[in-house]
Write a structure and sequence with these properties.
The protein is mainly alpha-helical and about 100 residues long. It has helices at about 25-35, 35-45, 50-55, 65-75, 90-95.
C-alpha cells in the first residue's frame, strides 16, 4: 500500500514524504552521532537542552532560525520539514476531564 502525502509533506503514517534523500528524524541523527540534548543545544546556539528534547521527540516545532541551524549542524541530514511536531490523538478521558 502506498501512503498518500498530505499538503504538509507528511504521509499519513507520520513519516516525511516526497522526493530527495530519505528523511532522518533529529532523535535518530543525535543517536547516531552520540550527541546529548545539551551538546546539540550548544551546537545550535541560543536554545536550551529542554527545547532540544522537545524538538527531538517532536512535541514542538522549531523557529525558522533554529530549523536552519539544525539543517546546518546536521549537514542537511535533518531537514526543516522533518522537524514538524506530531499531533497526538486526544484521549476520551482528556476530553471529559
Amino acid at each position: 500500500m502506498i501512503a498518500s502525502a498530505s499538503p504538509s509533506g507528511f504521509s499519513r503514517g507520520g513519516a516525511p514524504s516526497g522526493g530527495g534523500d530519505p528523511a532522518m528524524w533529529l532523535k535518530d541523527w543525535m543517536t547516531r552521532e552520540g550527541m546529548s540534548d545539551s551538546e546539540m543545544a550548544e551546537r545550535i546556539g541560543e536554545i536550551s537542552a529542554e527545547a532540544v528534547r522537545k524538538l527531538r521527540f517532536r512535541t514542538r516545532g522549531p523557529s525558522i532560525r533554529v530549523a536552519a541551524r539544525i539543517e546546518a549542524v546536521t549537514a542537511g541530514a535533518v531537514r526543516a520539514v522533518d522537524l514538524a511536531p506530531v499531533k497526538r490523538p486526544v484521549r476520551a478521558a482528556e476530553v471529559s476531564a
